[in-house]
């Protein structure tokens, strides 16, 4: 009887040790799997070509971070989606546009966490290859974007080219109503930025933001007859940013994302994607 009891106790102890070992193994396996999982974040981008970001994504994978690209077709929804929590970051806009947008839309939970590139606006025309070829015996038809940020930027660009003068008190956000002098007669036509490339045959020239021009197959190097001097002090407002919610601004993973963006490897990826169309600003 005592021998049987001893056998039963030994068997029970053996089983308990075996179960403990299995439980520990399962737990360690789960921990290892958890540690191997990538921390995923949704990044809002504009348009469908984000190959430079894809290059960055692959490098971030090695640091345990993965990015899911959420594509938008306009400049309005990316900030709204970020504010509402539908995405975690966005990277598509200039700092001046960002500041203007959040002010106009009463959004107070977003902030910039890093700079990326500057994308100079260009002058494009289907009629001439040089602005000097345009005759000013009648007002020139000139199209500019109709949103506050890009429209004001286009007017400042026109001023730098010697066509108009604008009220200095308006800073980088003048409107057509703030033009104080037409040095050269021009008829300024405001329209949606993405409509300007197709409208060039009806214009003397159009001022087109870089991204819109690129999507339309136009480049600074080959097609623009003039473009902004990105080294001007006022151009700092037009540096592009990565935006996040304020509550996440100090998140270590987001700092890693900005750090990985601001590398020589990214400069090479940007050059492959844009062919010099955009200029790194870090």
Structure description:
There is one protein chain. The protein folds into 2 domains: 39-119 and 236-280, D-Maltodextrin-Binding Protein, domain 2, CATH 3.40.190.10; 122-228, Periplasmic binding protein-like II (D-Maltodextrin-Binding Protein, domain 2, 3-Layer(aba) Sandwich). Helix content is 38%, strand content 24%. It is built from 9 helices and 13 strands. A 6-stranded mixed β-sheet has the order 2-1-3-12-4-13, with helices on both faces. A 5-stranded mixed β-sheet has the order 9-6-10-5-11. A two-stranded antiparallel ribbon has the order 7-8. Helix 2 packs across helix 8 (252-261) and helix 2 (51-61) runs antiparallel to helix 9. The protein starts with a helix and ends with a strand. The relative contact order is 0.17. The model is unreliable at 11-33 (pLDDT under 50).
Describe the secondary structure blueprint for this structure.
Layout: H1 2-36, E1 39-46, H2 51-61, E2 65-72, H3 77-84, E3 89-94, H4 95-104, E4 110-118, E5 122-124, E6 140-145, H5 148-160, E7 164-166, E8 179-182, E9 186-191, H6 196-199, E10 205-208, H7 210-215, E11 226-227, E12 239-245, H8 252-261, H9 264-274, E13 279-280
Parallel strand pairs: 1-2, 1-3, 6-9, 6-10
Antiparallel strand pairs: 3-12, 4-12, 4-13, 5-10, 5-11, 7-8
Helix pairs in contact: 2-8, 2-9
Number of helices: 9
Radius of gyration: 28 Å
The CATH superfamily of the largest domain bears the name Periplasmic binding protein-like II
User: Which runs of at least 5 residues are low in confidence (pLDDT < 50)?
Assistant: 11-33
Give the structural class. alpha/beta
Oligomer: single chain
**Helix content class:** 25-40%
End-to-end distance, in Å?
83 Å
Strand order of the largest sheet: 2-1-3-12-4-13
* Biggest β-sheet strands, sense, barrel: 6 strands, mixed
Beta content comes to: 15-25%
CATH architecture of the largest domain: 3-Layer(aba) Sandwich
Outline type: globular
Membrane topology: Lipid-anchor
Family: Belongs to the NlpA lipoprotein family.
Pfam family, one: Lipoprotein_9
Subcellular location: Membrane
